[in-house]
Task: structure prediction
Amino acid sequence: MEDKAEHVSVLLEETIEALSVKPDGVYCDATAGKRGGFAKKILEKLATGMVVGLDADPEAVESLKADIGGDRRARIYRANFRDMRELWEEEGLPGLDGVVMDLGLSTEQLADPRRGFSFSSDGPLNMKYWADGPGPTAADIVNEAAEEELTEMFFRWGERHARRIARGICDARRSGRIETTGRLAEVARKSAPSARGGRDASTLIFLALRAEANRELEALEKGVRAAVDLMNPGGVLCVITYQSAEDGLVKRLTRKMARGCRCDEERESCVCGEGTADIELVNKKVIVPAKEEIARNRRARSAKLRIVRKLTKEPQ
Ligand SMILES: C[S@@+](CC[C@H](N)C(=O)[O-])C[C@H]1O[C@@H](n2cnc3c(N)ncnc32)[C@H](O)[C@@H]1O
Result:
């Protein structure tokens, strides 16, 4: 039987097929995780090539180093993909033939109460991929953000009861800091007892806080742009998302880039005049897992894969 606490890679076959790994190519698994599901599959197809595995989480990186770090074709770094460009420069890494970003959390991270990602078990309200890294924890945000900021944050991630839950948090923290996942989940449930559709009142609140603590949307935009810059012509970028806010960003951003627009992702109308496009969209329609994959792995049910290819600079 499948171990529920063991991460199973999502859309693995579809992604590896899209990368069409060359034996002497250079690839980056930008969210390799503890198990490096994509990095290992790429390694199987390499001869003289290289796979660079990144993860923001030092614990995941230590495990992965112990697993495949001894392979001379693998280079593993603790790094946020938002900083890829700087890492490539510092380490003198070669141009890339393909990049995979498989966003969010691994099953192991979610199941570990010390990390504070889940409302199903009690633990410190941390939620950072690099738990001791710079920047505020989820607890700092919950206890220090203004009520209006919390409301906006929860709305952005789709919580209909954002205002009530934000008010509930601000009332609760008057009698002491909210430091644990259990306490936050209790406050959320009390503030929005009528959450419909069987979804726990904490689901979107936890998602919003994790995204905020890790500045995920900002990292995603920077990471996609850096990956495209670092790729050789013909290089393929595959992005797997699990949330509509992430998928929406990837969709808008890659469409803009495919038109040659260099404006910020959130700018609605173009002011840059659209130059030569850097990329083309490989799949105009998003790729989702087959029914069989979802039946085997529930986590796959919300996954979406978008693929783009880097173009040559010369006009075609
Ligand atoms: C879904 S898991 C990856 C699982 C892996 N692809 C596999 O199949 O074995 C996502 C991983 O991305 C990492 N992560 C999330 N955001 C990141 C970022 N901005 N930069 C680097 N790693 C990130 C998380 O720490 C986590 O280990």
